[in-house]
Amino acid sequence: MREVANVTLSAQHRPWSFSFGGLDVETEFEALLHTGRGSRDADWELFRLAAIARQAWMAPAFDQLLALEHVQFTPLPHQVETALRVVRDLRGRAILADEVGLGKTIEAGLVLKEYLVRGLVQKALVLVPASLVSQWTRELTQKFRISATPQRDEWTWTTEGVIVSSLDTAKRPPHADRIREQWWDLIIVDEAHKLKNPNTKNFQFLNQLQHKYMLFLTATPIQNQLKELHTLVTLLKPGELGNSAEFSERFVASPRKPKDPAGLRQTVSRVMIRNRREDGALELPKRHVQTLPVELTPDERAFYEAVQAFLRSEFERSRLAHTSILPLITLQREICSSAYAALLSLEKMMKKTRDPDRARRLSALIDQGAAIGRYAKVETVLRMLENAPDKVIIFTEYRASQDFLMYTLKKHGISAVPFRGGFRRGKKDWMRELFSKKIRVLVATESGGEGINLQFCNYMINYDLPWNPMRLEQRIGRIHRLGQTQPCHIVHLVTQNTIEEHIMRVLQDKIRMFEAVIGRVDEIVADVRFDRWEKLIFEAAMTSRDDEEFVNHLRSIQLDDLVARKGGTR
Fold this sequence. Notes:
Residues 377-529 form the Helicase C-terminal domain. It contains 24 helices and 17 strands. It is α/β, with parallel strands linked by helices. The strands form 4 sheets. Strands 5-6-4-7-8-3-11 form a 7-stranded parallel beta sheet, sandwiched between helices. Strands 12-17-16-13-15-14 form a 6-stranded parallel beta sheet, with helices on both faces.
C-alpha cells in the first residue's frame, strides 16, 4: 500500500486521467491516493479504495480473460466466450442458460475467477441445490483455485470470502438475516428457475440481498408462462423489461405466446446466453439409446388391467364431483413403474376413503397386487446387469420403486446405493463417492439426480419413463455431458401393451416436433407445457375405448397446445 501511495506517474502513464460528468477523475484520484499522508486522522478506507481503483484502472480491458492463466484446466471455446461476454458486455449480470451438460458451472466459475483476479470481487455467495454444495465447492477449489467454503454455521457468512450454500438453508433463520446484512460483490444461483414465482420465499429472499454482480444458471429459464421470464430478468436486472404491465403490453399476446418474438429475443439477449450442442464444434461421445420391451408376467398383467378399470371408474367419479385427478395421474404413472409403487398409493387411498364400496374394491386390488410373485422389469434389470459394464445408474421416478430395486439388488448380491432428494448433503456426497469408487450400481430418483455429475459412468437404465421428455433428457445429461470420454448407452425399459409403451412411441415423434420448434427459438426459452401434456395423456387414456383410439388421441394433441411459439411460424 505504501508503494502505491508514494508512486508518481507521468501524465501519459495515467490511464485514469479523464473527465466524467464534470468530475476530473485524475485530480480526484490523486487526492484519494495521497489521502493519509501526514495526517493521523486520515480516512484509511478511502486510501484502500484508491489503491483498488488504481489496480482496476491499470488492469487490461475486458477484451481477454485474465482468469485463464490462473485455472487448473483448459476451458472449451464456448465457455471462454460466454464468460468473456458476461464480464465485457453484460456487466456481470446474466442468465446462463446452456443446455444440460455444456458447462454452466464452468462458465460461472470463470466469471467468478475473472472478477477475483481483477480485484473486483472480494465477497461471493453461491446458492445451489443442497445435493450440489459439495460438488460446487470441490470444483471451485480444484479447477479454479478459488478458496470456496461450504456453509457450516451462521458465522460462515461473515468470516469467509467465497461461500457455497443451499438456497433452502440460506433463506431460513438465523442465516437469512446474516446474509441480508452482508454486501455481496457477486451472487451465483444454480437451478435459478426455482425463482420464477415472485410470491415464493426463494424470490423474496434473493430480492432483499445487497449485491453488485449476479449470475443465474438454468437450462429452462421459462417452464410455463412468459411472465416467468419477466420475473427472472427483473430480479437479475430491475427495469430491463419494464414493470409487469409494460412487459405484458409490449411482449405478451397470451400467457404462453409472445406479441413481438423478434423484439423479445433481442431484448432478452442483453441478459441471457444459451449455448446448444448443435451450435458449434462441441463434440461429445456418441449416445446409443435403446428401447427394450418388457412383457409383464400374467399376475402383473391382471393387476395392471384391474388398476386400469379402477382408474376409469375413479376418473368418471372425479369428473362428476369436480375433484382433482392428480392422485389418479400419479397412480397411472406408478403402475407403469412398478406394482409395488402402485400398491403404496392404493394403501394410502384405502386409509383416506370413507366409502365402504370403494374401500372393498381397494382392498381387493391391494390383495391382488400383494400376491404377485415375479416382477418382469426387475428380472430384466438383473439380466442386464450380468453383461453391463462396471458402473450402472438406474433412474426411477418413485421412491417406492427405488426401495424395491434396492431390496432386490441386495438380495442378489449386487452392490448398490440409493440417491434421492431427501438425503442430507453429507449423505449425498457419501453415496456419490461410494458409487464412484466402490459400488457398482446407483439407484436414483428424479429429484435425487438433479444437477449431479456422473460422467465417470456411461451406462444408464431408465426403469420407468417420465412423461415429460425434457426430464428424460435431463436424466441422460447426468452422464452424457462434458468430461464424458466413453460412448453412452441408455436403455429405456418399456412394458408392452401398456400406456407406457404407447406414450413412448408417440413421445418420440413429439420430441422431434418440440426440437423443431424450440430449436428455432432456443435463445429465449424452453417453454413446453408438460403439465398440460401429462393431463391430456391421462384424459386420453381414461376416455379411449381401446389402444388404437388412445394412440390416435395422443397423436391428435396439437403442438400449439404444448409449446408457446416464441419464434413465430415459418
